[in-house]
Amino acid sequence: xxxxxxxxxxxxxxxxxxxxxxxxxxxxxxxxxxxxxxxxxxxxxxxxxxxxxxxxxxxxxxxxxxxxxxxxxxxxxxxxxxxxxxxxxxxxxxxxxxxxxxxxxxxxxxxxxxxxxxxxxxxxxxxxxxxxxxxxxxxxxxxxxxxxxxxxxxxxxxxxxxxxxxxxxxxxxxxxxxxxxxxxxxxxxxxxxxxxxxxxxxxxxxxxxxxxxxxxxxxxxxxxxxxxxxxxxxxxxxxxxxxxxxxxxxxxxxxxxxxxxxxxxxxxxxxxxxxxxxxxxxxxxxxxxxxxxxxxxxxxxxxxxxxxxxxxxxxxxxxxxxxxxxxxxxxxxxxxxxxx
Length: 340
Description:
The protein is α/β, with parallel strands linked by helices. The chain is globular. The strands form two sheets. Strands 1, 2, 3, 4, 5 and 6 form a six-stranded parallel β-sheet that branches. It has a three-stranded parallel β-sheet with strand order 7-8-9. It contains twelve helices and nine strands. α7 runs parallel beside α8.
């Protein structure tokens, strides 16, 4: 007789996917062993986290040819490190929806890849094909600071940024989204200014995704999506992944620090589901990039999020959609667009 609590049984049966995790750089502890990273393979095993998207994060720098070349080199080096550390054992590098789906019911761990900040592309659209060839499933078009593709939600005055640079997407940004569509790369609008995000939603032939964001109605933060942005995702089949960044979930306390729990994360999930429907909502952590809430501080605690969602009335099917089913849908849609 199985005496596991219902939430544990549901979690074990679910294809769990965290859609945004940074990797430390340039010192990157090997995730095949126990590390001080929030996500390594032993922690994934302990927390029943079946798959993760490791992102090659590029901080915004000067918009110069030399800086773009260096950022591109960094992106490709990071992608190669992720690939090397993911090989062997029961780990699988996942680049397509069918490969992610194949993890269901197995004991394998899936590693997906992404590039966070189109800054590394510079003006060279061919970089996108290179990143896709190295396994990237999405590119976050900006980070904090405007780049050549688009305006960011958070400008960088230290880099000379004003409130906006292009009025949303640049002409190069338009071309980059078209190229991403042709390659099957998902367009990630996390970090993008509202103008950039809304234009990307309208322009992209595949649904767009915000891989790590929260609801601006609940927490007025420039990185969060407002109701109009959320509605645009619903209309176009897009997706927002509610993330475990305390400052996106709750306002800072008197000491200036934001503190949040898995219940706060679930509050944002509830709001998004009620506003735009469960088909357009998912989960992510932003671990090792600022994410981590009480109850879900690392991959080993992933069961706690499933338990909180089940406590609120989400059944196994709904929990499966939030953890991976909806992301699988947008992956398939992007691949279908690329196939023509």
